[in-house]
Amino acid sequence: MKFLRSIAIGFLFGFFVLSVQAESSGSNFLLEVLEKNAEEGDANAQNNLGVLYANGDGVRQDFVKAREWYEQAAAQGHADAQVNLGGLYHSGRGVRQDYVKAREWYEQAAAQGHAIAQHNLGVLYDIGEGVRQDFVKAREWYEQAAAQGDANAQRNLGGLYHRGQGVRQDYVKAREWYEQAAAQGDANAQVILGVFYANGRGVRQDYVKAREWYEQAAAQGHADAQFILGVLYLDGDGVRQDYVKAREWFEQAAAQGHADAQRNLGSLYYNGRGVRQDYVKAREWYEQAAAQGDANAQRYLGFLYDSGQGVRQDYVKAREWFEQAAAQGDAFSHLALGFLYLEGKGVRQSRHQAVEYFGKGCDLGEQLGCDFYREYKGTTTAK
Question: What is the pTM of this model?
Answer without folding.
Answer: 0.83
